[in-house]
């Protein structure tokens, strides 16, 4: 597909013309989906697509949030994964304080997400942390971080 799309003879002609070009010489089950995904993931095509050809995402009302750090989202899986093996992105957006943070994750199990959240929330500059003696402050995760 790279020859049909990326080479000098391919010239990034778009999905329809690339399908015609590929199907003139080859066929395999799922060729339409493969060609569509290949063209849509092409960096050159994404940067040069004509304005107005990509549908706009409708705007949504965002609820007023007064509690800091209330909204958290996980994006993924990401294909292909990063060179470091990260397949997900934990994104933390605080609409109350205008704070945003993104953390790459290899997996989205409870411990990975908790570690990332602790890394974001806990002081990173050596400040001491005072606890109330709760069992959560005695957990192995807490002790590893603090």
Automatic annotation (TrEMBL):
Polar residues bias spans: 128-139
Disordered: annotated span: 124-146
MF annotations from Gene Ontology: nucleic acid binding
Lineage: superkingdom: Eukaryota
Integrase zinc-binding domain: residues covered: 3-48
InterPro entries documented for this protein: Integrase_H2C2 (IPR041588), Retrovirus_Pol_polyprotein (IPR050951), RNaseH-like_sf (IPR012337), RNaseH_sf (IPR036397)
Name of the protein in question: Gypsy retrotransposon integrase-like protein 1
Organism of provenance: Plakobranchus ocellatus
